Amino acid sequence: MRKALVVGINNYPKAELSGAVRDATEIANVLERHGDGSPNFDIKLITDPPVTITKALLRENIEALFKGKSDISLLYFSGHGFVNSLGGYIVTPDYQKYDEGISMDDILKYANESETRDKIIILDCCHSGAFGSPKLTGGYSALGEGVTVLTASKEDESAIEIGGRGVFTSLLIDALQGGSADLRGHITPGSIYSYIDSALGPWDQRPVFKTNVSTFISLRQIFPPVPLEILRKLKEYFESPTNEYKLDPSYEFTDDSAIDEHVETFKNLQEFESVGLVVPVGEEHMYFAAMNSKSCRLTALGYQYWRLVKENKI
Mind listing the domains of the chain with CATH numbers? Predict the structure, then answer.
């Protein structure tokens, strides 16, 4: 079972629909189903407005999220964050001085003590990098087994909005829709962080990624860029990862010597080249490798997928 609590709190009381509310709604929509339309997360979406989200209400729902033995429990929060000498907080509308919201340390405790296999916390708020760095323990924190944290900014940074939309969540949505997918169509917390990190420059807010897992789980799956039945042919075309595949003009459909079987193979090899699995040897393009009777070989990435096919993991 996969369940997700998605929370958006309006930081601008006069706005009918704030960026945080829109961001939370879009995250809920994309997480609810995989790319092929099949069910993914069982979503509980809470936004203010229309609900008035108090500290008690939010704490109740966070506690419920991490109860039980689910496969994945995911918390996404978009709103305002606060940090003081004691640590970080996610802020609710009923905040007051010395009682600003729910402590990030408390959320970490809920996750650490949960029997759920994988716990994912994603925060798009200012100072969100304070999560997992409790001040009370001298800066030391222990993420329990299976806990992964992805935040919009470092502890001392604000989370940027452009046009009323969170920059971090805009990139997160792009990543979940396929921007961070691997060649099998899997989207993992690690690939999402890599996608967001590469999109933000050194002068921008810096996302923070912390995890205590032995393997990444797939948060969402889309149609792979290369069909899996074609990807499995890597083992057929390359008996070993160091072998080169010999080409000649019969592989190019425009040549008079073209052979249908060779043309189909060449089409697949060109697909592999387009996603970085294969490169021509001694030529700049695959076309010239065929016309000049050269060859192609696996890249380092190609070797990794060749190994996955060899080990029957694809």
Answer: 2-221 (3.40.50.1460), 228-310 (1.10.10.10)
